[in-house]
Amino acid sequence: MINPLSNFTKKKIGGLILIFVIIIAFGFGGFGGGFNTGNQNNIAKINNTNISTQDFMDYLNQSGLTQQVIKENIDKNVIEELLSSLVSSTLLNLEIKDLNLVISDKIIAETLKKNKNFLDENGNFQRTLYEKFLLTNSMSAAMYEIKLKNNVLQRELFTYISGGAKSPKFLTDKHFLEKNRKLYIEFIKLNKFYKKADKFTDQEIKMFIDDNSEKLKQDYIDFSYVILTPKNLLGIDDFNQAFFDVIDEIDNKISKNVDFKTITNELDIDVITINDYINLENKETIENKIYNSRKDNIEILEDNGTFIFYQIDSVIQKLPNLNDERFVKQITNLLFQKEKFEFNKDILSQLDKNEFNQASFDKLGGGEVEKIQLNSIKDINKFENNSVKILYTLPINTFTLIADREDNIFVAKVIKFEDTKISQDSNILNAIANEASAENRNGILKSYDYLLNNKYEVIVNEKTLDRVKNYFK
């Protein structure tokens, strides 16, 4: 047997706390169709614990994913993601063993009997529902209960690590003050500094087109289509099985490479033909839907209860005509966005280099500086959520760029803040305490994630991983 370490590549498996959620999300899904392999080479190693190819195949069998689903997503790293989940689950089990966490059979039985999938309408556990679930998912009771035990233990591990992170009163008070203080800012809307789209000259438009001609080339298509309804296919107004049988028959003919003209002649429906078409306005029209689906030369599209049967006759890539007002409008919008980006980028560069100061702010504002009071970190009436969070992290007399929900950009200055009197309402206090405790737990779990990444060395055998991937191709 080859040395399992000879072809290993070292990899760190990050985000274990997030992966834990993925593991739980797999739940207890059915078997995917039975993946088999006699290859016992190790696909991964965690410190001194090996994960064999057979272990991984067993894990795939229990994932609920069919071979077809895995095959279709092989280029989207589905195998790597599943291996990461198995590695994370194994790592957590090693941590459970290291911490000597145990769970009694009584707790497992109680957890099993609380599963809503096995309860009748009166909330009582039904053995028949449990056995039906096992049969449907090709699982034995012992196998299911082992999986259940592992999941409960993993939850207990995270409770063990962070469950006691109750925020003390002084931190709860600090949390309340930081999130609920009133914040006073000055701001300048930058829209007035951008050159308006209708102010660009013909020369500027032509120069932009010349400089970006290859990128601006677009597909012009010739196509034909018919609209399929019960009325024009069967002479009736209502959809019925006969109508869908005709749609299926057209689909079958398409798969057998019967051409569009032959099919439409048999249907005896008038064909609409469009030449030299381009979608410049992206409106909800039949023509634009066909244009946006042009990668398929012949296809049936469903459109609000009707079906569009189309064929793309030709596709020519070329630069739109400058006499087309829609194209000119598109170019002026691009120029506007470019000017806007460059202006904002210049302000941001000054902020990063600490070159933007009060004099810069006053000069930019020109006496038109606006003021606003934010009542808490959740006050998003003026600015969008992330911008408000940024403002609440800044020291007094600092500047930043922020945005509103319409993507308008502002340069803002934090003037001062006022602490709000801590509420004595018990419901509010409890909510604040829970928020503060949640933040503490998140901090602890992030630290624990870092600890795990340093405590365990995860190594993946790339050659074995490639062999597994090739199995599904």
From TrEMBL:
Pfam families named among the record's database cross-references: SurA_N_3
Coiled coil location: none
Main location as per UniProt: membrane
Keywords: Cell membrane, Chaperone, Membrane, Transmembrane, Transmembrane helix
GO cellular component, one term: plasma membrane
SUPFAM superfamilies: Triger factor/SurA peptide-binding domain-like
Localization in the cell: Cell membrane
TM ranges: 12-35
PANTHER family from the UniProt entry: PEPTIDYL-PROLYL CIS-TRANS ISOMERASE D, PERIPLASMIC CHAPERONE PPID
Protein name per the record: SurA
